[in-house]
Amino acid sequence: MTQPRSFRYVGTRPIRQDGAEKVTGRANFGADLSFPGMLWGRVLRSPHAHAKVVSIDTSAASEIPGVKAIVTSADLPEQRPGGDPTDMYDLTRNILAREKVLYEGHPIAAVAATSREIADRAVAAIQVEYELLEPVLDLDRAIAPDAPILHAELRCAGSDPKPEGPTNVASRILIERGDVERAFADADVVIEREFTTPTVHQGYIEPFACVARTTEDGQSTLWCCTQGPFTVRSLCAALLRIETSKIKVIPSEIGGGFGGKTTVYQEPLALLLSRKSGRAVKMVMTRQEVFRATGPASASRIRVKLGAKRDGTLTAAEASLAYEAGAFKGSPVVAGAMAMFAMYDLPSVRIEGFDVVTNKPKVNAYRAPGAPMATFASESVVDELAASLEMDPIEFRLKNAVRQGSVAVYGPKLKAVGLVECLEALRDSEHYRTPLSENQGRGIACGFWFNGNMQSSAQIHVNEDGTATVVSGCPDIGGSRASLALMAAEELGIPVEQIRPIVADTETIGYNDGTGGSRVTYATGTAVIEAARDIVLQLRQRAAAFWDTQLENVGYEDGKAIPLGDAAENQQPLPLSTLARRAARMGGPIVGRSTWTARGNGPSFAAHLVDVEVDPETGRVEVLRYTAAQDAGKAIHPSYVEGQYQGGAVQGIGWALNEAYFYDAEGHLQNASFLDYRMPVASDLPMIDTIVVEVPNPNHPYGVRGVGETSIVPPLAAVANAVQAATGIRFVDLPMSPPAVLAAIDRTRG
Amino acid sequence: MVTVHLPKSLQSYSDGAPSVQIEAGTVRQLILELDRRYPGLGAELRSGMAIAIDGEIIQEPLLERLGAESEVHFLPPIGGG
Q: Which CATH number is B50's domain given?
């Protein structure tokens, strides 16, 4: 590993290369593309949360002038159950319902017509006969002995003994280490509580949108907003059972994803309609469709028990987590279970997790999937333990915090990590010492996220004048083009302004897993560094040949091949621009490339500090001040690192204070709009202050670790701990909305 | 010898032993040997498990090399957002 002592470009804050296009409104997002003669695709969605589909009659719809194609599940090939990592049997049923509809908004059929209005009319003309079933809308009902069963074939994986009958509990996991019973017996204080969190949505601004076009030779092109164009290609090819090479996916700019755009919904339908009609087909979801039919984050119920010695040493932890998966199995309960105590050196742990299906949309990833709700529970109890032992909440956490060499709750021994540094930064901050007034409270909480790896490819093309193009295949959600360009600049020794970073389509660059798991700056960034080093080697080889010397007599510094040893006596440095200009005579085009299956993205820890004021007359919680400290390893572009901290904190504050799906008794979502689904906006909050801690990840050439997700993990508990400090009331159910807070205050008033 | 730590859910294969010692140079060899010793375990480990080798989590580790004293943990795969 090379560890540069100082950086010339990394750590600076240049204007992002895609900035001008975005602030002027010229950048093309998913819904911006149109073709002459294009059709509009619309989807018929179930009005019922749970019903058998008895029949679908599309005959009247197909006779409406302007209707060019209609598809139902009969147009999608059946898939085999199981599959890794995606269960295609479930996925094809989520794309278009087959035997049953499993949530309000579940797609049943799709229509392509010459206008959106005609497509809507055709959708309304499709006749569906349903046999209504009782909907299962929460965890309690789902696990009740007489609960209606969503999937007759579902058996609980991981249960012992193996179940014989069908169930709504898709799986059970168990993490166990040490002697938990004895460790609790050794504790001087034990606190146990149960928490709940509701279904929440990622709230990305841009609804799903795509255009599919298929030519006479069966070749399809799909333009769409997605976090993973290669994932979209793979899933669509499998769903439609066509060759991967028949589909090219071109990612548009993306107006937010946060994990929600890591799968497919209408993209295979657009392809199917396009293949059937022979025309380009555009599909754009409404906001209502986004809320009703795309994957939100799980609702959860979590019981936590923690024990500590009188000196503040944690002795044992126990937890039971139940997460709603929505209509099909696959909640992030495993990640929640593994993450919730990962901040602490705990010798004895027992965590049980349950993945439970309900009649709501199938959940999808949402920033550190599974961790925020579990950490809301664990960090609330940690705070209560500290208070019961009359210890400062930061000192209590510092006493138990994981360090290099600690064994993580989920098994492995940790390398260098920065939790202690985050906590110390908050402890030493001016914020932590600022006095509070009446009805105000201060809360702190920690958080952890694993950070992902997966596959990345990168290429760098050196142009004739010595400028360069960096080509990656990961859509830029949080400023990754800027960070990739900075790393290329650092290696090539040329100004970042001379580097153009682009996000390529699936035919232009080797396979890339999606933008997710906080992996792009680490994994694709490392590929870019290696591609740049590939170029530097080629430049040195050309200079060595030109100087009639050995490779070891040529170095590379500040964008120049440098003669060393004997060569230094009679040769002058050769700038990259000169070697690029002479490329045709000195070996041809200069292209660097790198591919790898990434490993070693170091985990990231954060600690958040928040001050709130609670209005005792209305129950409204106002966030007065917020500081987020997080370990970035090395901040490549500090502005975008800070932006990730701020964005995660704001989403977590929304989760804590206001956001929730509200269903009626029949399973109809009651607040499927941004008017009624209350997310925080800029005017609701103070500036989120940030502290960028840098404990280098030993696995990365510059020390980078992912930063995109950890920031949403601590806020739920941090805000709850602050509200507790302000009111004396421990809130265990989210959201802490004004009616909920006021009702709790009223109860204390008697 | 490589030390392999098994999750609770797979310890029924190893008669309840939380860890076992295996001679192996790559993850592929390790899984083959585990399957030879504990029939059926190999299929479980191949079906979407992630692995941590000396503290580093790796998603698709089949050909990863192991050190003579490596510590290996099999983990459920984690999806990011």
A: 3.10.20.30
B71 contacts in A (CB within 8 Å)?
A: 412-413
- Region A723-746 average pLDDT: 98
> Does this chain's domain A30-133+207-254+261-293 share its CATH topology with A300-451+602-749?
no
How far apart CA A258 and CA A359 sit, in angstroms, is 23
d(CA A689, CA A74): 53
**Does B80 reside within a domain?**
no
pLDDT at A133: 98
**Per-residue pLDDT reduced to its tens digit, A230-262:** 999 999 999 999 999 999 999 999 999 999 999
Residue B33 structural domain: 2-75
The answer to whether the CB atoms of A258 and B80 lie below 8 A apart is: no
Instruction: Identify the CATH number of the domain defined by range A30-133+207-254+261-293.
Output: 3.90.1170.50
Q: How far is B12 from chain A (nearest CA, A)?
A: 10
Total beta-carbon pairs less than 8 A apart between chain A and chain B:
92
Residue among A173, A202, A415 whose CB faces B76 most closely: A173
Pick from A174, A365, A413: which is nearest to B55 by CB? A413
CB contact under 8 A, A365 and B8: no
A5: number of CA atoms within 13 Å, CB side?
A: 0
Q: How many domains does chain B have?
A: 1
Residues in chain A closer than 8 A to B8 (CB atoms): 174-176
A453 and chain B in contact, CB less than 8 A: yes
Pairing of strands B71-75, A281-284: unpaired
Distance between CA atoms of A241 and A236, rounded to whole angstroms? Answer: 8
Provide the ipTM: 0.90
What is the tens place of the pLDDT at every residue in A679-729?
Answer: 999 999 999 999 999 999 999 999 999 999 999 999 999 999 999 999 999
**Distance (Å, rounded) from C-alpha A300 to C-alpha A195?**
8
Chain A residues whose CB is inside 8 A of the B5 CB are: 411
Q: Phi/psi of residue A441, each to 5°? A: -145, 160
Is 1.10.1160.10 the CATH number for A456-584?
no
Cβ distance A413 to B56 less than 8 Å, yes or no, reads: no
pLDDT reported for residue A676: 96
The answer to whether residue B81 is domain-embedded is no
CB spacing of B59 vs A414 below 8 angstroms: no
Q: Peptide bond before A686: cis, by omega within 30 degrees of 0?
A: no
- In a domain, residue B14? The reply is yes
Pairing of the two strands A468-472 and A499-503: parallel
Token digits for B13? 């294969």
The answer, for B13 touching chain A at a CB cutoff of 8 Å, is no
In three state form, how does the secondary structure of chain B look? CEEEECCHHHCCCCCCCCEEEECCCEHHHHHHHHHHHCCCHHHHHHCCCEEEECCEEECCCCCCECCCCCEEEEECCCCCC
Contacts of A600 in chain B (CB under 8 A): 56
Q: Report chain A's mean pLDDT, rounded to a whole number.
A: 96
Do the beta carbons of residue A523 and residue A453 sit within 8 Å?
yes
Does any domain span residue B63?
yes
| pLDDT given for residue A1 in this prediction | 43
Q: Could you say which of 3.90.1030.10, 3.30.1490.100, 3.40.1010.10, 3.30.365.10 is the CATH number of the domain covering A300-451+602-749?
A: 3.30.365.10
Q: Can you point out the beta strands (E) in A379-485?
A: 440-449, 454-462, 468-472
What residues does A94 pair with on adjacent strands? none
> Are the C-beta atoms of A227 and A514 separated by less than 8 Å?
yes
- Residue A541: exposure state from Cβ atoms within 10 A (0-12, 13-18, ≥19): middle
Q: Give domain limits for chain A.
A: 30-133+207-254+261-293, 300-451+602-749, 456-584
The answer to whether A368 contacts B52, with C-beta atoms less than 8 Å apart, is: no
